Amino acid sequence: MQGNGPDGGEQKLDEEDEWQLYASAGYASAETVTEVEEAEEIDKEEWFDGDDLEVNGAPIDWDAPPCPAPLGVAHIIKMGTCDYCLHRVAGRRTKARGAEGGREIREDAHARDPGIAKFGAPELCPLCEDLFDDTGNIVSRVIESTKGIEYGTIQFGIHLPKDLVQDEDKIRSRHGAPASRPLKAAFADAIQEQLSKHMPDIEFVKEKPDLMILVDGLTLRIDIDVRPVFLYGRYRKLSREIPQTRWPCRACRGRAQGCESCQGTGLQYPDSVQDLVGEPIRAILQAEDTSFHGMGREDIDVRCLGSGRPFVLEVKNPQLRKANLVELVAAVNDSSSGRVEIDQLDWTDRKRIGRIKETRSDKSYTIRFRVDDIPEEETVKEAISGLSGVVLEQNTPKRVSHRRAAKTRKRKVVSISDVIVDGDEVQSTLRCEAGTYIKELIHSDEGRTVPSVSGVLDRECEVLWLDVEEIHAD
Ligand SMILES: [Zn+2]
Ligand SMILES: [Zn+2]
């Protein structure tokens, strides 16, 4: 049996932690990059181009006072500002909000100075280029594209053309009332306000949403990103034939259609803890796929017993996210035919993955091995018990050296007990520090682990089986 990580030892995965890359390549950071670029552009640019900036055929009067002064309000009306923008930059108290509030302000201004009324209906609002007219359209498309998805919270990301954002900022900071709402934020507000009339139970959040909705203000394209859900649990692996996570087929390297040797699955092993736990849950939550994050892992041929190994299951693109956890546990146990068991699941978040990856906990094992030309029972027991409490020096084992840098690690054998000699076989219980290579502690890996059972007995030892009895986490 080919070895996978150390024998039940605590290991970081070899692969880059994909979730971290995913997290930092996420949507929110893309937004941030855009904001930074915009800010730099403004710094570099000679943006105050004075009387050259024309709106609706008339030069902007840069000498007008800013809102909320009546002359300032009159000025932005003359510029052709729409009712939405009028409301957000005029700095006036109104009974209504949004466009309706803007109409109140416009009517007040007309009453004060009938001359303003001749400017009539705006052609193209210089502050938003009539972006707010699209609000209803966007709202109905959001409603359409989120049908059938279960969610409670939404976060919006708005992408607007850079020059629109820059021009708006110039006009608003010069003519708008202090602390007027910027275009992007105001547009998000307008969408959310209309959307909540259709979906009164939805909450709009600034982080950790169920749905991330990206709106492109230029093309009006909307992208819906259903954020993953995370489940924490502990698994027992009762089979010596399944790896913890999916292994791509060696022959075809896991290509989508697979090959003859993997019978079209693309997998070296048809089952894994990842899929035995993840697949039933993926099906119930109508999700796309899963990622499995274990607190270390055991070899394929090593069972993991006791209270099991902690893990976080990431369920990607779930259409449902409010499942009954007791039912999820039952679905996993029912479908795994006793190969994998879980007792409990809890909802958690992405941060938990980092925490379980960092946790270093002792583990207890039972191991059985054969000794060549075995000495007297008492000699065997004494020699093996003498290793209790020692610190091992373990050079990177041969079997993992293709994946790991060669180095020497020191790991403590916390205790060895219950040594039983049965013919030429020995069985024993041991507790070791996180990251100890257990099989190597027995057979010495050709002297790469010192001391070892093989060393102290001066005999060849062959490991028959190994069980993780307990992971002393939490
Ligand atoms: Zn406008
Ligand atoms: Zn294959």
Percentage beta strand: 15-25%
Number of strand elements: 16
Large-scale geometry: elongated
Query: Mean pLDDT, as a whole number?
Result: 86
**Largest sheet, described in full?**
10 strands, mixed
Q: What is the CATH topology classification name of the domain at 228-358?
A: Alpha-Beta Plaits
Kindly state the percentage of residues in helix: 25-40%
Order of helices and strands: HHEEHHHHEHHEEEEHEEHEHEHEEEHEHE
- Overall CATH class of the domain at 228-358: Alpha Beta
Q: Calculate Rg over CA atoms.
A: 33 Å
Distance, first to last CA: 31 Å
Q: Hetero groups bound?
A: zinc ion
Number of helices: 14
Indicate the structural class. alpha+beta
Which second-level CATH architecture of the domain at 228-358 applies?
2-Layer Sandwich
Low-confidence stretches: 1-52
Topology record:
Blueprint: H1 18-24, H2 27-44, E1 54-55, E2 58-59, H3 70-78, H4 83-89, H5 98-112, H6 135-145, E3 153-159, H7 162-175, H8 183-198, E4 203-204, E5 211-216, E6 222-226, E7 229-237, H9 273-284, E8 289-294, E9 303-316, H10 325-335, E10 340-348, H11 351-358, E11 363-371, H12 377-385, E12 391-395, E13 408-422, E14 425-432, H13 438-443, E15 449-450, H14 453-457, E16 461-471
Parallel strand pairs: 3-4, 3-5, 9-16
Antiparallel strand pairs: 1-2, 5-6, 7-9, 7-10, 8-9, 11-14, 11-16, 12-13, 12-15, 13-14
Helix pairs in contact: 4-5, 6-8, 9-10
